[in-house]
Amino acid sequence: MAPLQLKSQKFREEREEDWRRLSFLLDKVEGGGAKSLTDVQLMAVPVLYRSALSSLSVARATSLDQSLVEYLEGLCARAYFLVYGARARLGERILRFFTHGWPAAVRSIWKETLAAALIVGLSVVVGYVLVRQNPDWYYAIVGSDMASGRDPTASAEFLRKSLYDGGKDQSLAMFAAFLFNNNARVALFAFALGFAFALPTALLLIQNGAGMGAMIAVFAAKDLGWQFGGWLFIHGTTELFAIIIAGGAGFRIGLAVAFPGDRTRLDAAATAGRQTGAAMAGVVLMLLIAGLLEGFGRQLITSDLARYGVGAAAAALWLSYFYLPRREGARRERV
Amino acid sequence: MSVYDQLDRADRALRRSLVTPEGVDLNLRIGDSGQRIGAFLIDVIIQYGVLFLFALVLGTIYSAVEGKGAENVGVLYFLGAFVLQNGWFIGFELSPRAATPGKRFLGLRVASRDGGRLTAEAVIVRNVTRQVEFFLPVAFIFVAGALGGVDGLFYLMVAIWMGIFLFFPLFNKDRLRVGDLLAGTWVVRSPKRILMPDLSQTGAHTHAHFAFTDKQLQAYGVKELHVLEQVLRTRDRKTMAAVAMRIRRKIDWVSGPDERDEDFLAAYYAALRSRLEQRMLFGHRRKDKHDKA
Predict the structure, then answer these.
(1) Who's near A39: CB < 8 A, 6+ residues apart?
(2) Each residue of B16-60: pLDDT tens digit?
(3) Which bin fits B184, alpha (ψ -120 to 50), beta or left (φ > 0)?
(4) Which pLDDT score, from 0 to 100, does residue A330 have?
């Protein structure tokens, strides 16, 4: 008697070759990116993917071999993610992010960013006024680990040293790096905490703004306000801008959760999260640049005027990069 | 078969339908909490291993440089730590595999919840949020411990914080982190499966010794067939013996001399599958043994 052959067996024998080929190509792409495929192989992937999908449908309808159906489900899912998840090459994506995605994302949250900027500005003023009137406020606003001795009781000499002696004082560079890490975290938190109806974001911004105002007040009381400004300005414009954008992004999410309109809160949050994602990627970059300015630029440049110059130039660059209207980008959007 | 019923239900709870543009449901399975935690632990352990080596290297450089420019070593460490902690997840999840080494190891990947493509923005958002969910409270505890002078209330707050964010995935059916929620992503299983041999063909030459009557093949349905398939693939001698005995009793099978349990089961599997598949072609899919179709 000839061995019994099931329809599902015959089907499997006919298609198996294609499945194995697709699996092999997927392995290659997952290992080394789309570049590792030849042109012929690359063209074959969508075709093999569709044939695997049809195999899956057939197998579900005709085969009771569970492992076969599961294998095909896995294979199709992997291929699906490759075929429909494939994007432009990494280089192009990065280029597009800089020419289009980043500034567009920042522009799209300009209202929230403005609100965040106002909150920070206001709390700087409040922090300044409070400490000028009563220095005791300083301890309530600035934590002792952040201040590292720069408090109202410090001598003018000590404060001056902390502004210009970076190169010789080891701990200051470490402090700067720590501060960068700290500020980067503040920015990330300002964004992520927006989830809780934006309130924690606002609190974080206020705390940071007030802390800065309090610091300025301490230095200003010893007639070092102008110099401290330079010390702060060289990296502060970039860093503060980054934190403000992060805060704006956090507000956007908080507002979406609080007032989702006719969508569910989940959907609204997801949409807002995706809209602001590019802005947040940019924020991390800005913070890195600020960190470099802070760690190295500030040690190399000790003239106040140059410090102000660098800070102002950075601010101007960021503002024009984000908010200057661009014809090229607009044209591409319409296409 | 109540054990299998429970497994079945657990499996179905993790299944999510994802219909491709071609109109086929991929029937994806989302990663369960154990897999998610495991993947994260693997990632964190590797990360801290790398950081430790990095610190060792920098330490030797530090002692070699001594004094001049030595503070830059510290700066390097902080920058490196920041890049590693954030770049690790984002970088790996942007790769074609869309998974960190920990996720790869456990057969998971990140996917967009709406079935569309996974954008860079989504990956960044879901990982930036990770900072707040996990690393912030941990850092708090370490810093507070180092500085001292924190009261129990502080730890209570941290505990509540971690309770909300850390256990968030346990309280929704899609096992979403807060970051997944914001980014519109989820984590699905996408393990690499190997194509197993067709059981109805392996050892087909011995099947000829077994001739089952129609009535004997009517005893079971698709569900039992799948269980039998699992038993045959696992090839545990004791289980096979027990199952073979149950089936023989149910279908009143008279065993021949030195008939092996595995041969009997394989032959019955092949015959049952052939019958059920044939009936399926005519539109009768018999769900299980209680199904009268």
Answers:
(1) none
(2) 888 888 888 888 889 988 999 999 999 999 999 999 998 888 888
(3) left
(4) 46
* End-to-end CA separation in angstroms for chain A: 67
Residues A114-169: tens digit of each pLDDT: 999 999 999 999 988 988 888 777 777 776 555 556 666 677 777 776 666 544 44
Beta-carbon contacts below 8 Å between A and B:
213
Question: How far does the CA of residue B279 sit from the closest CA of chain A (Å)?
Answer: 10
Q: Are residues B43 and B184 in the same domain?
A: yes
| Inside any domain, residue B9 | no
pLDDT digits over A41-98, tens only? 888 989 999 999 999 999 988 888 888 998 999 999 989 988 887 665 666 777 877 8
Q: How many CB atoms lie within 10 A of CB B203?
A: 15
* DSSP element (H, E) containing B185: strand B185-189
Within-domain flag for B292: no
Q: How far is CA B255 from CA A17, A225, B245, in A?
A: 39, 100, 10
Asked whether the beta carbons of A142 and A136 are under 8 A apart, the reply is no
Check: CB of residue A188 under 8 Å from CB of residue B139.
no
Q: How many CB atoms lie within 10 A of CB B115?
A: 16
Q: Which of A7, A23, A56 sits opposite B24 (nearest CB)?
A: A56
B70 touches chain A (CB under 8 A): yes
What CA–CA distance (Å, rounded) separates A40 from B67? 59
In this structure, is residue B53 part of a structural domain? yes
Domain ranges of chain A: 7-86, 93-326
Cβ within 8 Å, pair B27-A73 = yes
Do B178 and B95 lie in a common domain? Answer: yes
Minimal C-alpha gap between A307 and chain B (Å): 21
pTM for this predicted structure? 0.73
Taking a contact as any Cβ pair under 8 Å apart, which residues of chain B between 10 and 69 contact chain A?
18, 20-22, 24, 26-28
Give A-chain residues touching B28 at CB under 8 angstroms.
77
pLDDT in tens, A299-314: 777 788 888 888 889 8
* Residue at a domain's end among B166, B189, B212: B189
**Pair of tokens at residue A158:** 């000590």
Record: contact A189-B131, CB cut-off 8 A: yes
Chain A interface disruption, residue of B174, B198, B281, most A CBs within 10 A: B198
Question: Which of 139-198 (B) contact A at CB < 8 A?
Answer: 139, 147, 178-179, 181-184, 188, 190-196, 198
Helix ranges restricted to H, chain A: 7-32, 39-62, 66-85, 90-96, 102-108, 110-133, 137-141, 144-147, 156-164, 170-192, 199-221, 225-258, 265-292, 298-300, 304-323, 327-334
Q: Give the domain range for residue B131.
A: 17-189
The CB density around residue A221, as the number of other CB atoms within 10 Å, is 15
Nearest by CB to residue A173, choosing from B72, B129, B196, is B72
Check whether residue B41 and residue B86 sit in a common domain.
yes
Total domains present in chain B: 2
